[in-house]
Each structure stands twice: as structure tokens, then as C-alpha cells.
Amino acid sequence: NSVVAIVGRPNVGKSTIFNRLVGERISIVEDIPGVTRDRIYSSAEWLNVSFRLIDTGGIEIGDEPILVQIREQASVAIREADVIIFLVNGREGVTAADEEVAKILYKSNKPVVLAVNKIDNPEMKEQMYEFYSLGFGDPYPISGTHGLGLGDLLDAVVELFPEHENEDEKEDTIHFSLIGRPNVGKSSLVNALLNEQRVIVSNVAGTTRDAIDTSFNRDGQDYVIIDTAGMRKRGKIYETTEKYSILRALRAIERSDVVLPLIDADTGIIEQDKKIAGYAHEAGRAVVIVVNKWDTIDQHDKAIKEFEEKIRAHFPFLDYAPIVFLSAKTKRRLHTLLPEIDIASENHSKRIETNVLNDVIMDALAVSPPPTKHGKRLKVLYATQVSVKPPTFVVFVNDPELMHFSYERFLENKIREAFGFEGTPIKIFARKR
Ligand code: GDP
């Protein structure tokens, strides 16, 4: 998928436009303690072309001077995006800060579409002309608050997307990536895995600039491993700052079916591990937790059970994820990893027939009747699976306001009991019927 970034000085309306372009998806947020709220990437779609949008505003640093923030933001956009939307404010005209942004973008050689925001009615269009001076050709007048002009803007953006290679890849190929803080053993595990496999192609150039994709086949199943760690090891392309490694991880997650958060058995679990694993969950990817460096642990009978309890306590939001204990160094238990990836991936794209699903839901309703609120009782009419990756269910009810988080959780558990879904998050939304 192509990546689009919105760049502009503070207050031009970046987040309004971002939210408009992402549509209602942005409002579908889960309220799970411990899961990060930084939503840097979101998916969007225009005329059947799906793309990803970076909220560069989300990575602005609070107290830095405006110029520093602008530079920072623009450089992230230039690195990550295929097309940049340069946003200015039609009510204020060209400012020095806009010119600063223009200068940086000009040097980048990235395709830029200039959008003039806050043009709320046709009479205001005259105010756009001065923006020709920024040197990005025809400005596109838009209104974030009224949602005007976005279609033309998106036409122009989509037009500039690069042609993607690799799109003939087989549909059932499993894409997976390893994420984790430095030194948990990501590179070691990638190498250990690939040394065991007959590697088909290793694609450095391709569509991504921040990961190495390597394809292999095992027992008839195709895999692509998306390796971001190896890139850093080469040392030149990216800085090693935390922010860039997070962006790189997010990009890898976006392209993955299955994400493997790595835990270092030797050093144990720290806060940063939780945050990184949270990204995989938030993105709705299948997850297999890997505890690496298992060779460093005293191998007594209960070692695995004890470590598993620790993980479950630290990652309650990943209760569906299987845990694999292995050593990239000695290759002990390495063979247990791919089978878990297979299962998680299969469940991630599993579809349940509506009638079978409703049998389960009706049984659940019988076991535990829906809650009441202000004397009104929730009525569940029927449920249907609306999408996969991750499996997403809509439950039609009399009044969505009456659906309580704990009841949703109860239904989720019943669905999991009946259909498995090990390794994948599932989503449930209540809609009014
Ligand atoms: P990355 O930063 O996550 O890619 O981590 P590396 O793969 O570079 O590994 C960091 C360090 O941990 C290196 O010194 C590795 O040799 C070591 N390491 C990786 N996997 C294992 C393992 O399974 N057991 C032990 N004992 N050390 C490991």
C-alpha cells in the first residue's frame, strides 16, 4: 500500500483533514488499559485504492519551537510517504512557516499536492491564488470542517502513487514480522529461521525502503518475512532513534498478517515491551508472542509455566496470543514457531457462517441475559461476521448504548469458545437495527 503524509505548520487543520480522510474508522477505538493511544498510521480508501495515512501531527513534540517541529515532521513525511499533502490555511495566506515547509519539501523530490484548507465557500476561492507562489502548481481548495474538495484532492494524490511491484504474490502467502526493543534477538531469529529454509528471493529494493522482505516456502506454504532489524544493522539508511524504529516497526506491522513480539527471557519483560506489543494488537494483526534466549533460563519443570504467567499478567490485551519459547542461538524449539504462525494466520482470516454464529450467540444469550441500563434491556437480534483480518462481527441490537463492555467481552469469549480464533484479535461492534 502507498503511504500518504499530511504536512503543514501548526493550526492549518491537519488533524481535521486526517480524520476526514480516514473516515469513521478513527472513531473505532478500543478502550484497553495499557495499550498505547498513539495512532500514527491509519488506513484509508479512495475509489477502491487503499492507502495508509501518517498522522505526522501525532509525532509532533510538545515544547520544541515551531520551526524544529516543522522540520521534524517534514523529514518523517519525506522518509515514509510516497505522496505528501502540503496543507496551508487559506484564511491566513502564505506565512513564513509555510515557506519553510515548502523549502524542505522542494528539496525532497517527493510528489507533493498542495491543499488550501478553510476554503469553506466558493467565494473564498480567490484567496487561493497567492499560494501558487509556493511552487507546487495548482492548489486544491478544501474545507476540512465542511468536507469540501476532498474528492478532487484525493484524485490528485492517488494519481501520484507509485506502481507497486510484487502484487502478483500469491494471496495465501503469510507475511510476518518480528518486533521488539533492541537486542531481544530479532536479527538472530530471522537468520536462524532463514538458515533452516530454502530462501527464494530476498528483496531489498522493491516497494519498501525500510525493511528486507525475504520469501520462503515450507511444506507448500509461502511465507514472507519482513525484516526491519537487518536494515538497522546495515547502519546507513536510518538513524537508530526510538522514533524511527517505532515508525519502522509500525510499517512492518501494517504489512504483516502475523506479528511476533519478541521478549528477551534473559532480561525479562519491561514497559517498552508492552508498548511495542500493543502496536500489533491495535493494528488488528494476528500475534504470536516469542520468548527468545530460552537457553539462558534454568530449565526446570515449571520454568515455562512461570514465564507464561508473567507474560499473561503483563500483556492482558494479548490473551489470545500463543507463546513460543525458543532460542535463536541454539535453535532449540525453533521448529515450534512456524506451526503457530500458520494457525494464527488461518484464524485471522477465518469466516464463520451467519447461521452457525447465531446458534452460538443465542446460546450465549440464554446462559446470561443482556444487561439493562436505566431500566431498559439490551435486545440482541442477530450477529454477522462482516470482515476478516481480523475477524470482525457486528451484533444488531435495539440500542447500542445499552451494550456494555463486559457483555461484549462475554460474547467474545463465547465466540472464542465455539470457534477457536487462537492467535487473532476479534472485534465486535454493536449496531442499531
Ligand atoms: P536485535 O537487536 O533484536 O536484532 O537483536 P540481535 O539479534 O542483534 O541480538 C542481540 C544479542 O542477543 C546478540 O548478542 C545475540 O547474539 C544475542 N542473542 C540473540 N538470540 C539469542 C538467544 O537465543 N540466546 C542467547 N543466549 N543470546 C541470543
Automatic annotation (TrEMBL):
One of its GO terms (molecular function) is ribosome binding. InterPro entries: G_ENGA, GTP-bd, GTPase_Der, KH_dom-like, KH_dom-like_a/b, P-loop_NTPase, Small_GTP-bd. It holds the Pfam family KH_dom-like. GTP 1 binds at residues 8-15, 55-59, 117-120. The keyword Nucleotide-binding applies. Keywords: GTP-binding, Nucleotide-binding, Repeat, Ribosome biogenesis. The keyword Metal-binding does not apply. GO terms for biological process: ribosome biogenesis. Residues 2-165, 174-349 form the EngA-type G domain. GTP 2 binds at residues 180-187, 227-231, 292-295. GTPase that plays an essential role in the late steps of ribosome biogenesis. Associates with the 50S ribosomal subunit. Belongs to the TRAFAC class TrmE-Era-EngA-EngB-Septin-like GTPase superfamily. EngA (Der) GTPase family. HAMAP family: GTPase_Der. NCBIfam families: GTPase_EngA, small_GTP. PANTHER family: GTPASE DER. This is GTPase Der. It comes from Gracilibacillus halotolerans.
